[in-house]
Amino acid sequence: MPLEPFGKSAALSLGVELELQLVNTVDFDLTSSANDLLVLLSRKPFPGTVTPEITQSMIEIATGIQTEHAPLLAELRGMRDTLVAACDRLNIGIAGGGTHPFQRWSEQRVFSRPRFEQISQLYGYLAKQFTVFGQHVHVGCASGDDALFLLHSLSRYVPHFIALSASSPFFQGVDTLFDSARLNSVFAFPLSGRAPFTLSWDDFAHGYFMKMEATGVVKSMKDFYWDIRPKPEFGTIELRVCDTPLTVERAAALACYLQAICRRLLERLEPPPEEDDYLVYTFNRFQACRFGLDGTMVDPRTRESRTIREDILATLRHVEPHGAVLRSLPALEEIERCAARAGNHATHLRGVFAQSRNVQSMVQESTRALRTGPE
Amino acid sequence: MMGVDLIGPLVAWPLMLLAAWTAGEWLFRRWQLPRVCAYGAIGVVLGGAGLSHATSAQPTLGFMANVALALTLFELGYRVNPRWFRHNPWVLIAGLVQALLTFGGVFWVAGQFEVAIDHRLVLAALCVATSPAAVMRVTHELRSAGQVTERLLHLCALNCLLAVLLLKGVVGYWHLETSGELGKAAFNSVYVIALSLVVGAVFGVIAPVLNRLAISSQGTTVTFAILVLLLSGIAQSLHLSPLLAALAFGAIARERRIMLSHAQRNFGALGDVLTVFLFVFVGGLLSWTGLLTSLLLGISVLLARSAVHTLVNLGIAHVSGTTFRKGALTGLALMPMSVFAMLLLEESRLDGFDLAQASLPVFIGLLLLLEVIGPFVTQRALQLAHETHPPEN
Question: Which chain A residue has the Cα nearest residue B82?
Answer without folding.
Answer: A91
